[in-house]
Amino acid sequence: MHDPGRRHDAGQPPAAPAAADPPHAPPPPDDTPQLEWFTDVLPGFERRTLPLAPDFEGEVVATLVRRRRDEPLPHDAGVDVLYVHGWTDYFFQTHLADFWEGLGVRFHALDLRKYGRSIRPHHTPGFITRLETYDEDLEAALAQIGHGESDRPTRGLVLMGHSTGGLVLSLWTDRHPGRADALVLNSPWLEFQTRKVGRRVLEPSVRAQAALAPRSQLVNVDLGYYVRAVSSRQDGSWELDPAWHPDEGWRATPAWLAAIFDGHEQVARGLSIDVPVLVLLSARSTPPVRWSEDMHRTDSVLDVEGVARRTMRLGRLVTLARVEGALHDVTLSAPEVRDVVWQEMRRWVRTYAPLRAPEPEPASPTAPVRGWRRWFGRS
After folding, report:
1. pTM score of the predicted model
2. Cβ distance 191 to 167 under 8 Å?
C-alpha cells in the first residue's frame, strides 16, 4: 500500500499508489457515526472519524490516527501524546510516532477539520474564522484518548504541535490550565513572517476582505520551495500526498488569515501557559523568494528570529532549542539533524514530563499539584 509518510533512500523512487486505494481517498461515509477504528492509509496505523457540529459548509469532521496494536506498549510510561499538524498539512510522520513509542508513550495524531483525512468535497480547505473553533476538534480527540473535560485521567498528557498547530495548541493550553502536563512546539507559527510591523500594515485590508468576502482567495506567495526541499517527488526524502499537502499550498482566505493575526496578537501580548514548554526551531531561515540549496538546511517558511522572540511570551517555563541544519518541520531534517532533535526532546521530556507507570486514581477528588506547576503555574 502507498505510504504517504515513508522516507525514501536516495535513488529509490516512491511507490505508486494502488489504483483501488488512492492515498487521498476520503474515509468511507459509513464510518463517521460509528466511531470505529478503520485501516489508515499509513501501513500499520488506523484512524477514527470524529463527527463535529456542522458549519455553513455542511458536515464537518476531525480524524484521530494511531498505530494499530494488538497488545499494549511493552514499557508503558503512563503518558499520552496528541500531535497536531500545520497549515496545508496532515499527519504522515510515522517516525515521530516511533520516537514517542520508544519512550513508552502512547501516540495519537489529529487531522483537524478541513485538513488531510478530514477534508470533504464541499469544504474550503483549512477554512475557519476563529482559532477557538478548533477547541471542538481537540476536545473530541482528547475524549477519545481518555483526557476529556469530564475525565479524571491517571495518565500524563503531552501536546505537540507543528507550525499552525503549535499556535493553536499554545492558545488552547493557555485557555485550559491544568489539562495538559507539557507542551512541545515544532517550529510554531507564533508571529507573522514580516513580524508585528508587517501584521499591522496588512491587517486593515485583510480584515476588510474578511468582512466582505471571507472565503475569497488571497494572492498565493508560496512558491513551493519548502515542499521541494521535503518531497521525494522533488529534491526531498519524504513521500507526501499532493492532495493533502499540495506543492504550492492552498491559497489562503482573508477570514482565515485574520484569525491567524488574532492568534499572533494574543501571543504578542503574552500568554500564561502553566506547563513546561519546549520550542524546537531551526537555527536559520532562508527567505522563500528564490530556490537555494540552503533550503535543505534552514526554515524556508517562518522567520525563526521573530518566532524565537515570541517564545518568551508563552509562559514562565520555556525551553528554546535552536537546531543547526533543521528544516521548518525539524523532524523532517537530515538524519544527523534529526538525531539532535530526538536528543533534545528526550532530554527535555525526561526532565519536565517524567515518564512513569500509570498511577491509581486518587481517592481524593483533588489531583496532586506537580512541583513545577506549583512554582511556575498560575495561582
Report:
1. 0.85
2. no
